[in-house]
Design goal:
Length: 384
């Protein structure tokens, strides 16, 4: 199941059954007195470790009496699940950034190496009850990231999460689902087929031992793992109280890139994203812009430009003369020259050039824009 020493493996599997994810008090115990001492104290029912009340210590002891690490490992093995310990060859070192909230260990279902995949991964998260726009953007971003060779990480939930996983899989790419329950379970039930497919083609990861069910607090704490595991987090749609914002803020605290996809200003499902964008999050609209942030130096998104118009091909001085012509009347060469900040002789020479191109025409001693030029140069809006 792991390259870690058998004794520490069993001790950490034991603790994964006793301690809730993200318990920083327990994390401090492990750091200060070590795994073996914490396990011994819990198994023996000895004196409470510091930082907990007698009631809470009693609750931990009750859990400890029911913990069966050998059985958990056997059940996991039967389901094709392994347990990865901190410091082991498959452990993603970036999770250590969580400090005392670092997972005790991770249950992993799937063949690839979690450590290798996490090195080049991006989280795509968002609303469960997303709009068609949100689902489209999640699929498009995930597919684009997969095509760029990045692993897409999300939470396996309905809405944006599911769309992101499907986008990556549909592009033949890699994806990781971080669950708030045992990885041998499928939650939500409607994603049974999707989670199974992810386990076959990618990775399903979680902190909770086999058979454990999700709770609201476990969903929230799961988000810190998504944030720490990846190089950056993209939020596609999120209301003001969305759990996706928890992931994004955790990413920001950890020094990861935080990104948001804008939506309509009137959409409540984009209000949380817009709040992030008013802070330190970066606006992104496609995978190339995400890769520009999280990738290596020089991986720049293509320059965004509108279509090239015929007037864009004119010399700058000629464009200034064209812009100096009034929209609805003829003008004398000296007036045009003043508007273009050039000499009258130069203005006349450029007006003849513009006439040959169909932009202007002579009207007695003056010059006037052609009808077609009024549309192309002014965008159909008169200018006196």
């Amino acid at each position: 199941m792991s390259d870690e020493p058998d004794e520490e493996l069993l001790e950490r599997v034991f603790l994964a059954r006793v301690v809730e994810p993200g318990d920083e008090v327990a994390g401090r115990w492990l750091r200060e007195v070590g795994v073996a001492e914490v396990v011994e104290r819990l198994r023996s029912g000895g004196e409470a470790l510091p930082g907990v009340s007698a009631t809470r210590w009693g609750g931990l002891l009750a859990r400890a009496r029911r913990a069966e690490p050998e059985r958990d490992l056997a059940v996991a093995r039967e389901a094709g699940v392994r347990f990865v310990c901190p410091g082991g060859p498959e452990w993603p070192g970036q999770l250590d950034d969580l400090g005392d909230a670092r997972p005790i260990g991770l249950w992993v279902r799937g063949r690839p190496s979690l450590r290798m995949w996490a090195l080049r991964s991006v989280a795509v998260v968002g609303a469960r009850a997303c709009t068609e726009y949100g689902a489209h953007m999640a699929v498009s971003l995930a597919a684009g990231l997969a095509e760029h060779g990045w692993v897409v990480v999300s939470g396996g939930a309905y809405g944006v999460d599911g769309a992101a996983h499907r986008g990556a899989l549909g592009a033949g790419g890699a994806t990781v689902a971080v669950l708030a329950c045992g990885v041998d379970q499928t939650y939500p039930r409607g994603h049974t087929e999707l989670i199974t497919r992810i386990a076959e083609q990618g990775l399903v990861v979680g902190e909770l031992p086999p058979g454990e069910h999700p709770t609201p607090s476990r969903f929230v704490l799961r988000n810190r793992v998504i944030a720490a595991l990846t190089r950056g987090t993209v939020v596609v749609e999120a209301a003001h109280r969305s759990g996706s914002l928890v992931t994004a803020r955790a990413a920001a605290r950890l020094g990861r890139h935080t990104m948001g996809v804008p939506g309509p200003a009137t959409s409540g499902l984009s209000a949380g994203v817009h709040e992030l964008l008013r802070g330190e999050a970066v606006l992104v609209t496609d995978a190339a812009e995400v890769v520009e942030l999280v990738g290596a130096m020089g991986q720049l998104a293509p320059e965004r430009r509108g279509p090239v118009l015929p007037r864009d091909l004119l010399a700058p001085a000629t464009r200034r003369v064209l812009a100096a012509l009034p929209a609805r009347r003829a003008a004398a060469p000296d007036e045009i020259a003043r508007g273009a900040q050039t000499t009258e002789d130069d203005a006349i020479a450029r007006l003849y050039e513009l006439r040959a191109l169909g932009y202007v025409e002579r009207h007695g001693d003056g010059w006037k824009l052609t009808r077609q030029a009024m549309i192309s140069v002014r965008g159909g809006r008169p200018r006196s």
